[in-house]
Design brief:
There is one protein chain. This protein has eight helices and six strands. By secondary structure, the chain is of the alpha+beta class. The protein has a two-stranded parallel sheet. Helix 1 packs across helix 3. It is extended and about 65 Å long.
């Protein structure tokens, strides 16, 4: 309820004390924050001060219990070029808010011990000659399967759009266009802003596709699952 949090503290407090917003602050007992490494230290201090002011309690965060998780060796807070990056643990209020630290050390997503040690080294920024050699060996790996190409990761959404558009144009065959049917024309702009998929989807035979929501977990049709267009059925089906 305080917008982006870039406004001065007094203004943020006023925003949080608005009708309909204030009750959320007062009713809140536990605040869970994921990906804590991306939260700016100055923003954390401001939130903490807002919580005390709105709840009119001098305890850290106005008595709200914090449950936070993340990895400070991953993504840092996003800030402008001329601003100094200040991690959350560098916030003035950090030590009085956080009383128990728990570190998870067991890797559960990978079983290959060599790969786990490589990931651990890179995570700490220790890219030794052996780590470099192992990574460079993977440059010739071919992960294409059943016409599904390797996923290309981009840092900006515009790069994704340009890459997808260019690859689609390179495919031969007829373009099939699918327009979204929106039940509420008044909410179209809001839906488009929130939805990872555009209102128009253009496909050709051989086009790479990705699911943007879980359809059937048991069939592994999950958010992020990759596929390729193998054909089009008539509109009656």
């Amino acid at each position: 309820g305080i917008g982006s949090g870039k406004a001065p503290l007094e203004q943020c407090i006023q925003l949080a004390e608005r009708a309909g917003v204030q009750q959320h602050w007062l009713a809140c007992q536990h605040l869970i924050i994921d990906e804590i490494s991306m939260v700016d230290g100055k923003f954390f201090d401001k939130l903490e001060a807002v919580a005390r002011a709105v709840r009119k309690r001098d305890e850290p965060f106005g008595g709200i219990q914090l449950i936070i998780c993340g990895d400070f060796l991953q993504l840092p807070p996003v800030c402008k070029d001329n601003e100094e990056t200040k991690f959350c643990f560098q916030a003035k209020s950090w030590r009085k808010c956080i009383h128990i630290n728990m570190e998870l050390t067991e890797v559960r997503r990978q079983t290959d011990k060599t790969f786990v040690s490589l990931l651990s080294a890179v995570r700490l920024g220790r890219c030794t000659e052996e780590v470099t050699r192992l990574l460079m060996q993977t440059a010739t790996n071919r992960s294409e399967r059943d016409g599904i190409l390797a996923t290309r990761l981009c840092t900006h959404k515009d790069d994704v759009e340009i890459t997808n558009e260019r690859r689609l144009q390179q495919l031969s065959g007829e373009m099939h266009t699918f327009e979204a049917l929106d039940s509420d024309p008044m909410l179209v702009k809001l839906i488009d802003a929130q939805c990872p998929v555009g209102g128009r989807v253009e496909l050709k035979l051989g086009a790479q596709v990705m699911l943007a929501k879980n359809l059937d977990v048991s069939q592994r049709l999950v958010n992020g699952a990759r596929g390729v267009v193998v054909g089009f059925e008539s509109e009656q089906k």
